[in-house]
């Protein structure tokens, strides 16, 4: 397993990306790093992006994407073992590049790719499709102002997915006041009415979640089961 350290300094602040995977994936990661961090360094923030993978082959490789601020990283943090008991965790900073980690759920091992949702990052989402089994689209249930933007970004991305991989739509922040229910989100995202978000050609599931820093978290187990059962 290759281990590649990529490092660059901005104004005495260090941004480090640790990549542990195959040579092919390392090359893709480095290319994206070059485009996002070096070509767009004025938008870069001091943040530690990491890849922590198991030596064992994963049951599935999951790509988690969505608009910036949708709750992708919080969802991924709660997805792993030991994050379902309501134990407090630090509020994550917006992902500038990407994070990857292996998550054990019972006897199943998932490699989960959490990719930033800024406009800069969105241009490179399609680069992560290689060898991915499932796509998780995270949408902020509490942000009505950006639901149409989320739909357009999802449709644009799925046009690159020629293999019509299974899609799980995760509606986060259900504990927020005024959060949209799944039925409303389905309507706004044009599920079953858009040519690329159609159950007749793609396995599509939806789940509502809440992942507060403290308190009860819901929907994580349901999301896990849907990912495990999808094909």
UniProtKB/TrEMBL annotation:
Swiss-Prot/TrEMBL keywords: GTP-binding, Magnesium, Membrane, Metal-binding, Nucleotide-binding, Transmembrane, Transmembrane helix
Coiled-coil segments on the chain, per record: none
Keyword Magnesium: yes
Short name of any one Pfam family annotated for the protein: Arf
GO MF annotation: an example: GTP binding
Membrane-spanning segments: 12-33
InterPro entries membership: P-loop_NTPase, Small_GTPase_ARF, Small_GTPase_ARF/SAR
PROSITE patterns: ARF
Residues annotated as binding Mg(2+): 73, 95
Keyword set includes Lipoprotein: no
Residue sites binding GTP per the record: 66-73, 117
Protein name: ADP-ribosylation factor-like protein 2
Source organism phylogeny: Eukaryota, Metazoa, Spiralia, Lophotrochozoa, Mollusca
């Amino acid at each position: 397993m290759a281990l590649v350290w990529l490092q660059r300094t901005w104004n005495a602040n260090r941004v480090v990306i640790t990549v542990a995977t195959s040579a092919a994936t390392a090359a893709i990661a480095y290319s994206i790093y070059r485009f996002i961090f070096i070509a767009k360094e004025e938008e870069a923030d001091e943040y530690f992006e990491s890849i922590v993978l198991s030596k064992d082959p994963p049951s599935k490789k999951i790509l988690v994407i969505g608009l910036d601020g949708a709750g992708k990283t919080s969802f991924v943090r709660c997805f792993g073992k030991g994050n379902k008991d309501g134990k407090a965790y630090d509020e994550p900073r917006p992902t500038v590049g990407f994070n990857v980690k292996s998550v054990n759920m019972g006897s199943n091992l998932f490699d989960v790719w959490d990719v930033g949702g800024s406009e800069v990052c969105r241009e490179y989402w399609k680069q992560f499709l290689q060898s991915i089994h499932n796509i998780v689209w995270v949408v902020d249930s509490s942000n009505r102002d950006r639901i149409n933007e989320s739909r357009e970004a999802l449709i644009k991305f799925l046009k690159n997915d020629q293999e019509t991989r299974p899609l799980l739509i995760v509606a986060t922040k259900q504990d927020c006041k005024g959060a949209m229910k799944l039925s409303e989100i389905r309507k706004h995202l044009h599920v079953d009415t858009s040519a690329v978000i159609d159950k007749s050609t793609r396995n599509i599931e939806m789940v509502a979640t809440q992942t507060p820093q403290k308190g009860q978290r819901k929907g994580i187990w349901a999301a896990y089961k849907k990912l495990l059962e999808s094909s």
